[in-house]
Fold this sequence. Notes:
By secondary structure, the protein is α+β, with helices and mostly antiparallel strands. It is built from eight helices and four strands, in the order βααβααβααβαα. The chain has helices at residues 12-16, 20-29, 44-50, 60-67, 82-90, 103-107, 122-132, 135-138, and strands at 3-10, 33-40, 72-80, 116-118. The two termini are 21 Å apart. Uridine-5'-diphosphate is lined by residues 54, 59, 63, 93, 111-112, 114, 117, 120.
Amino acid sequence: MAxxxxxxxxxxxxVQNGHIGHVLxxxxxxGLRIAAARLVHLTSAQxxxxxxxxxxxxxxxxxxxxxxxxxxxxxxxxGDQAVARNRELMGATDPAQAADGTIRKLxxxxxxxxxxxxxxxxxxxxxxxxFFFSQxxxxx
Length: 140
Ligand code: UDP
Ligand code: MG
């Protein structure tokens, strides 16, 4: 058993469309514990820094605008193989490609407005959790 932590974000469309409750249920039903949570409205500087790895992509400006269009729910999920498990529960980036029963298949409106973020590796998870959460206060 490899207990891990990963960062999840319920994106503005997920919050706006009232899907927080079901998304949390999906995580908990899959054995992922909510280790930390915070509802925030990101600034452009925060969203831009968080998505720095995508800065050279044409979609970057649109992505930052979208992620700052309304509140998001920041989550730290904890459990066995949490990084991969969360990615499975999310489904593919493009909802048209997402497997049946995944969060994105159920709720995503488009490749951009796709309801949830999830760290893509253990290294990304460590960086992304540290970006938003203080170990000392939020993850005890
Ligand atoms: N994105 C987009 N258009 C694309 C690819 C990505 O709008 O063609 C957005 C989308 O919101 C996605 C985010 O950029 O979730 C980060 O892209 P990534 O390739 O990391 O996908 P993810 O890891 O979220 O599945
Ligand atoms: Mg990604």
